[in-house]
Every structure is written in C-alpha cells, then in structure tokens.
Amino acid sequence: MSEERLSDVLARRVVVLDGGLSTALTAAGHDLSDSLWSARLLLTDPDAITAAHLAYYRAGAEVAITSSYQATFEGFGRRGLTEADTTGLLRDSVTLARRAASEVDGPRWVAASVGPYGAMLADGSEYRGRYGLAPGALESFHRPRIEVLAEAGADVLAVETIPDVEEAEAVLRVVAGSGVPLWLSYSARGTRTCAGQPLAEAFEVARDVAEVVAVGVNCCDPADVDEAVAIARTVTGKPVVVYPNSGESWDATTRSWTGAPAFEPARVAGWVAGGARLVGGCCQVGPGTIRDLADAVKG
C-alpha cells in the first residue's frame, strides 16, 4: 500500500503496471470463454482474482488493474443480477486488489478498470469503435460504473482500451470536475485509434482535463508504442501510460490469440526516454514478463 498519490510519484519516476489479468487467470487453469471474461470470477472464484493480482505484485508490478473491465450493470443484468448485486461486485473488484496489495511490501496502488462499451458486447468491438450510439447513451453507460468504482476506494481509474475519441469524450464529461484521478488509454493501430482517428486528436481531448493523470495506449502491438508515446507527450505534456499486448492478434470469431509474441522488456528504455511513466503489459503478457520489465526499469 502507499500513502502517496500515484500522480505525485509519476512526477519523479517510472511506475510498473501489471500484465494481463486474464493471462494470469488462464495460466492458473481458469476457463474464461464467457461473455463476462475474467469478471465472471467475481461471481464464482474471487480468490482466484486475488491470487492473480498477487502474482503480478510479487513479480514487481506496483499497480494492479482490477477485474472490472467487463463488469457492467448491463452484462451482469443479463445473468439475472440486480443493480445492488452488480454494485457489490464492482466494489469487490477493488477490495480483491487491495487484499493482494496487503500481502507485499513497498508502495502499491489499485487502478479500477473502466473498459469500453465494446467490452460489454463481447464481440471484439473495443478494437473497432463506432458503436452507433449517441454520446449521451455512452455517458449513461459509463456513469454508474464509474461512480461506484470511484467510491470503492481505488487510487485511480484505468479508462482503458478505448477505441474511439467519441467514447473518450463521453467518459471525460462524466469525470470532469469530480476530482477523481484517471488515466486514459486508447486501443490503437499505428498512429491512429482503432476507430481511425489520429492519435494527436485523440490525446488532445484529455489535455486540459485536470483529472487525467496520464494518457497513452494499451492492448496494441508493441511496435506501435514508440510513436504513440511521442505523440501523447507532445500533445498533452502529461505522463504517458503504455501497456501493449504480447504482439499476438486476437481472433474474435474463435476467441483465441494467434501469431508469435513480440513483447521485449528491453523496449521499456525507449518508452521511458519518450515520456512513459506508467509501463506494463496487457493481453498475453504474464507475471514472468512483468518481472523482466520491472528489472529493466530498475536497471
């Protein structure tokens, strides 16, 4: 646990994030072939989530991202859960990460995952965006979950894998003026969001929002990170957050990863030189790789 605000620490050093929660859970033998993905274990095996967070903390991660990425009122509602049930599970996602943090020494933070609307659809649309929803509908989707997670005691909100500037703007309207710290991270290909907007335009929407403590990209190819870091830093002047996938590609039809991994912890030196201050991994990046990345940051 840490008494320091994450934003204050980022002003003076690099902070290591965890890797893919689903990756650690799958490696431990859990079947995540479900529309709720890792959020299903909030219902069926919360201890497994704590164990996955602990594996990353012990590997050197200082920030755990909660299991709330696909935990939504709509998604749980389809399973017959009430709003009160879902509120409790969202709070649990923060509590489980806190419990893991209490098992290790040194500063540790909890980032409450706020996944995109497309994650709730479970059809891969977080890598496409352009949902066909009005901005007001996106605000209505994000607001109740953000309010619960903010009240649950997370250190920061991880607004992550956002494919579309329109959705980022909706989230920022929800949090602007609230004082709740967050980082904003897009899913991207090359120098564009997955919906096709230039990253310079995407980062610009966060430049003057005081609650945004970092901007960047996640769930992208490692090869795309260097340019994204440079653009984010130039446009916003804020610390940059990066946590790419292993380099493999997600097949939404077969719900599997294909290709060869290309995540090299040695890349972190270039990311840091460009302005990255929150660094980690996303899908298919496990505790072993995070240990190597943490060692590279220290080195």
Detailed description of the structure:
The structure is a single chain. The protein is of the alpha/beta class. It has helices at residues 6-10, 21-27, 40-44, 46-59, 73-77, 83-101, 117-121, 135-151, 165-175, 199-204, 225-236, 268-274, 287-298; strands at residues 15-16, 63-65, 109-114, 156-162, 182-186, 188-189, 192-193, 212-218, 240-243, 249-251, 256-258, 276-279. The strands form three sheets. An eight-stranded parallel β-sheet has the order 1-12-9-8-5-4-3-2. It has a two-stranded antiparallel sheet with strand order 6-7. Strand 6 (188-189) and strand 7 (192-193) form a beta hairpin. The longest helix has 19 residues, at 83-101. The mean pLDDT is 94.
Structural class: alpha/beta
Beta-strand content: 15-25%
What is the general shape? globular
Radius of gyration from CA coordinates: 17 Å
DSSP E strands, number: 12
Number of helices: 13
Q: State the oligomer.
A: single chain
> Distance between termini?
23 Å
Mean pLDDT: 94
